[in-house]
Structure formats: structure tokens, C-alpha cells
Amino acid sequence: MTSRIRATRGGTRAALIVGWCLAVVALGLVVFGLVLLRSRPDAAVVAVSTLFSAQFLSWGLAPLVAFGVDETVDPSRFALLPLRPATLQRGLLATALVGYLPVANLVLLLGAAVALSPRWWMLLLAVPCAVVQLILCVTFSRALSTAMSGLMSGRRGRDLGVMVGFAVFVLYMGLSWTLNRAGSSVGLQGGLTTVGRSLAWGPPGALAALPSRVADGRWAAAGIGLLTVLVALALLWWWWAAALRRSLTTVPSTTEGSAPAHASASGTVAADVTGTMWLMVQRDRVLAWRDPMRRAPWLIVAFLSIVWPLLVIRGAGAVFGVVLAAVLAGTQAGNQYGTEGSALWLHMVAFADRMRARGEALGHAVFALIPGVAIVVVACTVLSVIRSELHLLPAALGVCLGALTGSTAMAGYLSARVPFAARQSRTSMFAGSIPGQKARTAGAGFAIFGAGVAAAVVPGLLTVLALTTNPVWGWVALVVGPAVGVAAILLFTRAQARTYLARTPEILAVVAVGDRS
What we know:
This protein is mainly α. It has 20 helices and no strands.
């Protein structure tokens, strides 16, 4: 943290310091809210049991969904160290407890320990439970990520790893839906109480319930909960040790696959903007076929486009929740030059004029739009049928297609204006941003989301008119939304081509760092 602050200057340093201060304030408010639960012991046990269970799942899912920010989750990096697996495992556990995220989790858990202690002597039991909870979360996260990293050494393994990660994500969303149904069937407070009491018998929840069970003299329940925790921790530790030993001592037999020989014989000639555009579309299609990591985001976007609105939006207007998936689909056109690494010099030679540079930018945008439009149309149609909101379908399509095209336009332009490197090593799915370029990555992501929201403003206003005055305005939104987005794509691709040709050496210097990471 101090090195990152020293490496920045001026407004960037001030923004970084303010961001850390806001994060500390937010963490303090959450801890303060937990401490207030100390006066209501029954509610505290239910709330903390749910919190512990959610924290446990989050630690396991974060490396799979976000593809990790900590390179130590890839054990292949330590294969040549003269350490026995048991020693390395203890060292990795200690390493995982160092950093601002583990510290924030520990502070949160200490607040939960206070909430679980209506009598102060109970802190002697609640604090060790909080510490064990953190160790349980870290062990589960490392065991799952280590087992998954062994799948990523070849194309077949990456295919399987992506499918396993996607299955875990689907399981998480299904669990959320089940908990929501439980809450809606018996009321919100009754549903939370039922869910919290059920979770209190799982390994994380048992730690939250242990102090109250001991204080109430329920020794049998306390013993069963403690045994559950110890067995779970031992099984997770054994799983992590087995996965770590396997990854350090075995050589994967999988090989890199390739597309069929006839798949690349397209016959397209990059003689003009259109020819270059379709050449890039076919190239991106072949790369997406070969690399599972390029397909994984599309699986998640397709799944979220229908499931997320159904889970989050209970009343009318669920079809408009597809706008989130639309913006995420547009982000797939981002960082077009960063994915090339040092191979960008080939593009510098092949697309050295404005016509071909613009065709390349359009090709990347069209490739993102083809599946993106299909996902948006199918999701909006399905949701409007499920929720009986067919009258909202034209307006929803206008808003979502506007957000999709707007975010796609900005993603392409920022590829040239704010490029950032991507790790060229595909031996692991757990690869974070390049050190020193995390601010670029975050800034580009926020800008793309902002552009998607801005592009949806005009069709959104027309949607309001459709709901308040005349439904015809919904059909106007269906025309205006994509039209605004397409105009933005045509405008921004011209600017992207000019920026790319003017800053090609600088872009190459930035993205080539990915080859060395």
C-alpha cells in the first residue's frame, strides 16, 4: 500500500488516499452495526451465522469469478522452491493472512465476536471462533483454487475448469434463489430467521452459534457444532494438501488444441474497411473457439441476463434488469490491443493505415455485438413472457441494446486511449492485473459502465413516456436506443483508429509487459 502511494503523484495519490479512507469508514460502520447487535442475542446469532456462511462462500468463489488478484493461488509458481509440500502449505496459509483484505475480514470478524457476546466473558470463546472462521475461509479458498489451477495447463483442462467454475457460479445463484424463496414464503424476518438457524448447523454457522450454546448450557449442540467445524477444517486441509502435492509433482498430459484446419480458410481479403472488419470478426471467432478463457465471460453474461433479474427484481420491470448483462457484454470488446501483448507489432505492420485500423476496430466491435445482441433479445423475450410483461418488451429492448452498443463503443476507444497489459501465460486462470496497471484496468472498467449507462439514458426517457403517456414511445425507444449506440460505435471507431495510429509505440510498450508476467 505504501509503495503504491509513493509511486503516484498529485490527484492520483489524493484519490488513492481518499479511497482508502472511505473504505476504512465503510468498514467501521459495518463493524459498528454488528456491535449494536450485542443487545439482541437471538438476532445476533442468526445474523452472524448468515454472515459467516456468506463469507465462507465468498472466499471460495472470489478466485473463480474474479480470476484472482493473488498470484500465490497458482502453486506452479513454487514448484522449484526447495520446500516440502507441508512446509509450503503452511507458508501459503500465512501468506494468505497478510494483506488489507485479510485484515479487513479479521476486523469484521472481531466485530461479529462482540455481537455474539452479550456477556463479556463470552468474548474468550467468541474471539477464537472468529479466528478459526478466518482460517476456515482461507483454507477453503486455497484448496478450491489449487485444485482448479491444476486443470488449467492445457486446453482440455481449461475447458473443464471453466465449466466447473461456471457450475459453481450457477450453484451460488441457485442457492440465492432458494434463500429468497424461503424468505418470501414466511415473510422477510421469518425467512431470515429460518435460514440463519439452518446455517447455524454448518461449519461456519456452528462457529457463530458456539458461544451462545455454551452460555445456555446446550453442551450436546455445542459439541456437535465444534465437531462439525473440526472435521470440515481437517477435510479442507487434506484436500488442499492433496491438490498442492499433485500440482507440484505431476506433469499434465493435456495438450493445446486447435481449431479444425478448414476453419481458418475464410478467403476474406482485407482490401477495405469492410473486408478488414470481417477478417477480424473471423479471427476473434477462431480465438474464442481455441481459448476457453474467452468463452467463460460469455457464459456468465448469458446466465446473468435471465437469472439475475429474476432473483433481484421481485415486482414489475424485471425485463429492464437485462441492462446489466448488456453492459457486461459490451465490455468484451475492451482491451483489444492488450490481449495481443508484444505480438501487437504484427498489427502495426498489417494495419498501418487509417482504413485498416478502423476496420480492425469495427471487427472487434461487431464480434462483441453478435452474441451480445442475441443474448439481450433472448433474455428480454424470456423475461417478458415469464413475468407477463410483453407490453414492456420494445422499450426494454431499446434500453438494453442502447447500453450494449454504448459500452461496446467506449470499450473499443479505451483500448487505444487507456490500454493495459494482459498476462500472455494461459497456464492458469488465476492471474490478476499487471502490477502498476491496476488503476488503468479499474478506470477503463468504470468508464465502460458509465458509457453504457449514458447510452441508455435517451431510450430510458422514452420508456418513461411510454409508461406514463402512450405505449408508442416504447417502439420509438426500440429504434432510438440502437441508433444512438451504432452512431457512437461509428464515431468512436474513427477516434480509436486515429489514436491507435498516433500512439502505437506507446501502446506496444504498455501491453508488451504482459509477456514478462
